[in-house]
């Protein structure tokens, strides 16, 4: 219907131009003289251009979108180039090019510009978007609009140009030491010794302070021009199951960011990680420590929605009972609820549970502190993580 209206409008505009030329010609014939004929001949080039523009096959323009990359971390800039190529040169007086952005990216910047291509067969423009929000974003269409000098003829084309980017949550690096988790007397975690088998080399990594000189891989160091340390097999690795509470919350983005940082640190340490993400839908990742396992978890954290109501509280006890007794349970939540506390207290072995409470509140509500004290009395560790102070939380994990 919309296309039919555009076609009808274009036909009326063409008819108006023809009537305008006919009127000018009739005026010149009856009036005579230099002025009347000058008006007619001055009008003809503009009318011819308008008619040619109306008949130009705008649909045959070839439009391509080029991105600087397809995977980003939240906050990184996106640089996009829109390239337009004509089937044959046509003098566009102007062109308005707009990249139709996904809904979540519309606040990240402008993707619209006015160009003056004239006889150029190929023309392009570049724009950038900053502060990309976390998520999976699809670019689908580019809009090109042009017209004549009088504004009588207006043409618009919409072109399919599909691109897909993934914006991962921001995360930071820190060293995770599982044997240091029991910082409180009532934490209930046994200190597990992690002994490296120096006879089995699993790989290499960059040198970190504290590594022995005998662990340096000199061949890898020479190849990469950076000090590389041998990575050894671990005789004993901890199994951690991370439960993500996707209940609606104003601190959800901070929760996702901290969960990504924590998960990366756990896997980098060599421990095995499982993830149970509960919101309107549930996503479960089995316990593993392979590289592709981390990629799958990170992608889920990129696209996870804060869409839960009471699903997490209702399913928590059932999910806890599915995992082995030797797994350490980490619950990532952005708010404490009495019903959640009751579920945890009903868990047969609460000493394996640690709650990471991620919040933006500067001053914690008194009720939250009361719930935290209640949990700690039942040997459940609760760690409060303030937004913007993740590194302080990491130091509490990584050191004494």
Automatic annotation (TrEMBL):
Indicate the segments forming the DUF58 domain, all copies: 204-360
UniProt keyword Transmembrane helix present: yes
- Give the transmembrane ranges: 12-30, 36-56
Keywords for this protein: Membrane, Transmembrane, Transmembrane helix
InterPro entries, A to Z: DUF58
Alphabetical list of PANTHER family matching this protein: DUF58 DOMAIN-CONTAINING PROTEIN (PTHR34351:SF2), SLR1927 PROTEIN-RELATED (PTHR34351)
**Name of the molecule in the record:** DUF58 domain-containing protein
User: What is the protein's species of origin?
Assistant: Aeribacillus composti
